[in-house]
């Protein structure tokens, strides 16, 4: 039965929202596990090595890729390095010194996305290296992939949107061919390398092992919702973020800073993890299923 108008008036906005979620309907009409409309446009910056804009409801992120050659990490002599930066300044009014909180927010999101590409602790290769040869000279030179993201607007699930924008930017990317000119007497800066400038000789990246984040908000009653708006994020008991790859396996997991001390029953956690795995796999299948005609931008529309 529906609550009476008098009863609804006595409830707080959080209680009204929770009552709706219990009946599988949210304020914007979505069901608990339904995502907002997702629009992906690749190749939006003509002269970038790769670019993509992702709109998840009213959360919008632009990602642009630049490339450079540099030394690898000592413990990963053949693994490329993925650097992520996130600028949140455009998405919120900045006044006085409050820009520092947006800087901190951007750094935190960037760190979490980089963790997706680094893979498991102790692994010798990152997820991009599993299907792409990004090493030019082992121990001396590898590709550094710099993903610079600008948050155009933020209405919740920003980590998910940034992760998808980075992944789609890499799908759009091309890596130049190269030729190692020196094989002997290599100095500390590595061998001399000639990089191919002809774009017809560049190669695309395979992203078949690259995860994305799926965030799940958990309510007091143990129910959960996907793809939270900014208002919903404030109403949840906790928000958990799962890095899910195309096979449905979890590669990373974290919680929002404000909710790190919240605990849930083992049954609730098992259900949330399973739901995140299934949702992440289905989402990536849909994103990767379409290809643009040659010479055209790839545009993907998912959801209502």
Give the tags.
single chain; 304 residues; alpha+beta; seven-stranded mixed beta sheet; 15 strands; disordered N terminus
Topology:
Elements: H1 5-9, H2 13-22, E1 38-42, E2 50-56, E3 59-70, E4 81-87, H3 99-118, E5 135-137, E6 141-153, H4 158-172, E7 174-175, E8 178-180, E9 193-195, E10 203-204, E11 212-218, E12 224-226, H5 230-235, E13 238-244, E14 250-255, H6 266-289, E15 299-302
Parallel strand pairs: 4-6
Antiparallel strand pairs: 1-2, 1-15, 2-3, 3-6, 5-6, 7-10, 8-9, 11-12, 11-13, 13-14
Approximate strand percentage? 25-35%
**Through-space gap between termini:** 28 Å
Estimated radius of gyration:
21 Å
Separate helix tally: 6
Indicate the low-confidence ranges by residue numbers. 1-9, 257-261
**Mean pLDDT metric:** 84
Please tell me what the overall shape is. elongated
Describe this structure as you would to a colleague.
- The protein is of the alpha+beta class and 304 residues long.
- The protein is 26% helix and 28% strand.
- Strands 1, 2, 3, 4, 5, 6 and 15 form a seven-stranded mixed beta sheet that branches.
- A hairpin with a 7-residue loop joins strand 1 (38-42) and strand 2 (50-56).
